[in-house]
Amino acid sequence: MISVQNITKVFNSQDGEPVKAVDNVSFEVSEGQTLCLIGTSGSGKTTCLKMINRLVEPTSGDIWINGTDVIHACPIELRRGLGYVIQKAGLLPHLTVAQNVGLLPRILHWENERKRARVDELLDLVSLSPDQYRDRYPRELSGGQQQRVGVARALVLDPPIILMDEPFGALDPITREGLHDEFLRLKEEVGKTVVMVTHDLAEAFKLGDCIALMDGGKLVQFGSEDDFRERPENDFVQDFVRSHVESR
Amino acid sequence: MRKQSLPVLLFLFFSLIGPTLAQLDLERSNESEHTIVVGSKLLPESRILAELMSQLLEAHTDFNVVRRLGLGGTMVCFQAMQNGEIDIYPEYTGTGAVTILELDLKLRDPLRTYLVVSRGFRKRFNIAWLEPFGFNNTYVLAVHKDIASQFGLETISDLKEVEETINVGVSHEFLNRADGFPGLQDVYDLNFANIRGMEHSLAYQAVASRNIDVLDAFSTDGELMRYDLTLLEDDRLLFPPYHGAPLIRQEVLSAHPQIREVLTKLAWRLDDETMRGLNYRVQEEKISIAEVARDFLQEEGLLGEASVSQGAEAGGFLSYLQQRAGKTLSLTVEHLTLVGLSLGLAILVGLPLGIFITRYQRFAQPVLSLSGIIQTIPSIALLAFFIAVPGLGLGLRSAVVALFLYALLPIVRNTYTGIQEVDPKLLEAARGIGLTERELLTIVELPLAVRTIMAGVRTSAVINIGVATLAAFIGAGGLGEPIVTGLQLNDPYLILSGAVPAALLAVVVDKALGLLEGGLTPGGS
User: Is B426's CB within 8 Å of A90's CB?
Assistant: First the structure.
């Protein structure tokens, strides 16, 4: 279980004024659930996500993962226990698909045999034929394929939790639809806890077990799809839901 | 002006720091024992004398005569001789006594001086002085001809009559040396009413325009010929004797006693005026030293039958290059050693330094500015600077350090830029999946920056191949040696025999590093 309690992040803006990017946000995600953090750009959702794996250090507040205090953990150990997928996958352009997926096993000195088996297994899992894709470089793949490799890389050490930062953001709608289905299938298969940042409410409704809507650094509403549709907290939520869902 | 003053400055520089010089990295001749190496200092007179001796030896013996002319100052030549790297070079008795033997004697008598240095060199260094050439290159006082005839001035003593009225302009060194102006007061009881110190090169013009009447000079200065000057006799022997004579390693002389016979042909043939004439032809008329020497020897009938010049005119440039192929190859190896060592050091230091300033950004500007400033220092000044540093001295080590500093900037800057240009999103992704800072560097940043870093290395290599040609000025050898000598001797073939291989080397090394870059660059980019 991930438990985020009263986290606040204050940045210094360019003119030196402190800005609260995240303002006293709390939420919890139970094991096996998918939480979608949603909001407009600048709402603080990505900062929230990055505080979970300490790419951003909170100014105040606490984060606990399965009873472990994240703020005081070793960041390297912490991150290796949390899969991380970002927009456009963030694959290293000078490494092949197999080398990208096998990066952490290489660093951890896995035996070649074990590493190779794991890479192939994961490529199969994300529906990329290992024989065909193993030795390709990222630039030889489509955006959707790169994203699959990114997911495979996040899963390689079999972490119980995956953090995803707009993983489907840069893809065309058809590819995105396909990957959504893939995601749900995968989730069924591997059963991870997922925290996903998105700006697409339809995506959040489709993939998320619960949704956290943020605006101006504050958590506006936390709940299920039904809560958002039937019991919007305020006018802002209602407008947000209406504009997103109806525009599609 | 620039071309002229450079060797002069270097010569002065070497003479000043001479005693602290370490060792000279001369290439050891690998020819048989029939090779005789003739050396000289940088100043033209020394080169002319060495060339005269070389041509005589070529005309009258079967030795393969190798010229190592223009080896900096006194201590460079002498050190080279002690190391057995040169066999013969021309030296001055006064220099031998004061600079090399470090004798404190007030030596006035020419013969006694010669005997003292002969004995001293034989005992301490096993080096022999052969018979002097004849001239005495010491201080003289020169007077405008009109003044001399007007007052009947022939000796320095005669100046006493006109000490109240005459205008004297002397170099600052002369003004202060014990055997200069103070000596004039002591020995000749001269008390000039109008005397001033001035830059030596300006004194000639000042006397020509009658701003001054008397100046000091060296007795074999070619410039003395250009102006109508009367030289006053040092009738009370104030100025120390500086007679030129060949120095030869005793070992060589014992093995080949005929050398003494050959070189003695020159003895006493070069009085002050003759030497002045030869200097004048080289310095003022810009005739090549080889030609001046050949003309002189022919006029004196010293060359005999077989007086065909070896050298540039013997065939075309290609056959000239062919003759020098072995030499050029060994110079190229020397050159590559210089460049390789300095470039290697620059990579060892520049790469970590470049990485360091990406981590500690506040050092980035200072470090880049400093290495930029180093690049703006003229190469020759940088090279010259390090020979004064204890432990570096003349030769390879100073050259490597100077070249290293030159190579630093492109490597540091490109390492810094290459790493800075890595997409921050990529770094965040890599950090996010749990790479340590060290792994980020070795797995992500360096591989992605390798192309930029290698571009810096290639720039440095090419710069260094160019600058290393100047290393010859400080005796570090390499392809600059024929260039520097060729410039001094006005010998285009000799210049090209260094310049062409150096240019080719730059192209080849750049290509080779390009291939290496291809090998180092990871796929996928």
Answer: yes
